[in-house]
Each structure stands twice: as C-alpha cells, then as structure tokens.
Amino acid sequence: MRVLLPWVVSLSLTLAVGLLIYFSVPDWAQSWRVMLQGQPAFLLAGLGLTLLHMSLRAWRWGVLLAPVKQPIAYRRLFSLTVAKYVVNLIPPRAGELVASVVLARKEKIPAASVIATSLLERLLDLATVGGIFAVYLALFSGQHPPNSEQGREIMLAIQRFSLIGIPLLVLALLGMAHLVRRWDWTGRMPGWLSRIAVSFGDGFRALRRGGGRGKVVALSLGIWITISLQLWFLARAYLSDFPLDGALLLTVITVVGVAIPTPGGVGGFQFFMHLALTNFFAPFLSTQDPNSQAAGIGNGCYLVSMVPLLLLGFVLLHREGLSWSRISRIASQKRAPAAS
Hints:
Distance between the termini: 26 Å
Shape: globular
Largest sheet: none
Number of domains: 1
Radius of gyration: 21 Å
Order of helices and strands: HHHHHHHHHHHHH
Helix content: over 70%
Structural class: mainly alpha
C-alpha cells in the first residue's frame, strides 16, 4: 500500500489539474493551432537556455560538493543533474534522492553529504526566487497589474507567502551555516547518529568558505536569470511584444505550478502559466479567445523545454548505468541511504 500511495497521490493531482485545464479552455482546436505556431528561432533560443540552465545547476552542485570531494567530474554532475528530471517522472518524484545516492556511490563519498547539498540547492532556489519576486514588486509590478479579481488574489497569496517564507529561509540558511561551524552539539548524540549528522553537515560546508559562498550565490542568480530569459524567449515565440520584465513574474508563478508533485511537473506548469498570462498579461493576448491562446502557449512552452531534456536524460541515465528497477529501489528505500 505504501508503494502505491505516491502513485495514487501523484496521478490524482495530475487528473485534478488536468480537469482544471480542460474546463478552462473554450476551444481546444484553437489551442493546438496556437501551440504549433511558435516562431522556431525563439523556441530554439528557449531550448538553448534550458541546456544552459542545466549546465549552471551541475556547476553549482560541484561547488557545493567541493568541501566533500574535489574534483568530481563535471560530466557526471551534468548527467545526474539532467537525469533528475527523468526520475521525477516516477512518483514520488525522488529525482534529488536518487541522483544524490548514485553520485555518492560512484564517488565513494557519504550519501548524507550529497543529499545535504541537494537540500541546500532547493533552499537556495527558493531564496533566489523570493529575491526575484521582490525585485519585480519593487520595480515592475506597476507596469503589469492584475487585470482580474483572481489575479489580485494570486498576487496577494504570493506576497503573503514571501513575507513569511523568505525570512524563514534566510534564518534556516544562517542556522545551517552556524551549525556547520560548531560540531560540539553532535557529541551528545549516539555514535551512529553523530556520524550521519556530521556527514550531513559536510554538505553545507560550502556556506563557510568565502570563495565558495560567493560562487554559490552567483550561480544561483545565474540559474534563475537563465530560467527567466528562457521563459521570455518561449513567450516571445507566441507573443511578439511580450515584455522582458514580465518574464520575472512568469518565473515566480510557474515555480508554484512545477512544485505540484505531478510526474515531471506536467499540468501544474501549464495551469499556472495559463493563470499568469490571462490574469496579468491579458493585453498581450487575443481579445477573441485569450483562454485558448494561453493554454496553447503553456503547452508549447512545456513541450519545448521538457521533452528534449527528458530525451537527453534517458540517454544520460543509460550512460550512468541506471535502470528503472535500480531507480525504483533507491527511491523506495525507507531508511536514509546516508547510513550506508
């Protein structure tokens, strides 16, 4: 039953989001026509930025792991970074865990340390997205106000979350940096638990190093600027006058959709892209059928950014010697692999 539960939850969410999308589109035939009308040059630019985004993520992962082991082959880091997205097709989206465990075994380093760097990456991503939203609010929100009551509710919800979530994230990062500096607290734990805690803390040691900390911050900004540019190019493939600053808000809103634990983020991305376009950027859409147009744009952006990435991920999974059975075993392990 426990094995089936992630599938039930994931597929139920996928179905729920799919129904929301289905009933929000008046004309699916028009939506598919819009999807196929994207300008190839902008779509290719968006795809190129997707690959750059993966490259920067692999680089940042290597910087975070440098205090644990250096060097780690960039080729392996890039392969497993892309492979995460393929593994996330399988509920419960354990791509981070699987990639971390596989890297730890191949490099003969504690799995807890690698898992810690993956957790730190997610915290850094959330903090960076919060920073992007703050910049948008301060400089550009007046240019693209909500054009509906739903849009105002969306903006208010994001603002409330940011006011609470971002300070908590900053405190969490500062707390981790403090704990890494002092290890005396681990002496009060049982021996086996202390070893796991120390190994886990090693994954945060990049926060202690001035040069490493600077690289991590710069790469985190680079990753999310690249994602914003990617979304802008993809939007420009369908809307020739879509504003560059509008891509910042698209980034923040679609992150919420991707966080919904559907396989590969499918459905969640399209639904929240649709919400963003129709509630904040309606002046750039057709006045005749903006909902069908927005759905077509969301589908086109998802397919261009994800399908080539998934195909590449399948190739890289094979290169790393990973099979679906092995991935499933790692993802379903009940105990933290850090103990190994």
